[in-house]
Amino acid sequence: MASTSSDDFSVVVLASDLGVDARPFLNPSNVRQQEAAEDDNWHDCPSYLPSSDDHDFSDLEALQFFRLERGSDNSGNRIFRIVGKYFPAAVISGERLKKYVSHKILTEMPEGSFCVVYMHSTVQKEDNSPGLTILRWIYEELPNDSKDRLQAVYFIHPGLRSRLVFATLGRFLLSGGLYWKIKYISRLQYLWQDIKKGEVEIPEFVQQHDDILEHRPLTDYGIEPDPLHMTQIPSMAHTFGRYDSGWASREYMS
């Protein structure tokens, strides 16, 4: 009779769309081999926007995905606006993004408190999202003074996936200081409770997306209530009513 092994084993299942690095759950020897092969090249998208000067971010400035606004929120914090749709994640490495964010904060806002207004409207994970792990890494690499001066992150139009990721993994993947600073804003009308109109520029497509969500609120949760747009079909001029006369009773022979 063949002998059976009594070694314990475990199975870890991770959702493929959460952007979680599964290597810590793998065999340690495989992890070491993979890390050696990567040679610290942790980001899978090389930068196709090269610059001869490490401090020359003119190409990123032209994208306008991260900029300092003139206005402030109701607490007096200056506003950094981030438009997720404008960020080409596939062509910018995490290392260059980190340098750009640090340079932007230290040069344009060297002192004083600030907040971040992040617009997630119509963001595509494959095209515009650098990944939650990279965002955490960038935040952790900021000087302690900059992290302390960041007072709030207004997360506009979070999708269902974003809500699930932050609700289930947010406390593990984000430091406590950043996690508790995030405030979800499902509609622009709620943003005006913290920031007066005119203090931050809202792109037209963000306003249009907000209008769509206002008329179809279930879209927030990944549900399209009227995929065929049947509600937009004009009603018929005439309706067909039911016959007034009832069905004639049938007599059955006993």
Automatic annotation (TrEMBL):
Transmembrane segments: none annotated. Residues 59-211 form the CRAL-TRIO domain. Coiled coil: none annotated. It holds the Pfam family CRAL_TRIO_2. Gene3D superfamilies: CRAL-TRIO lipid binding domain. InterPro entries: CRAL-TRIO_dom, CRAL-TRIO_dom_sf. It comes from the Eukaryota. This is CRAL-TRIO domain-containing protein. It comes from Olea europaea subsp. europaea.
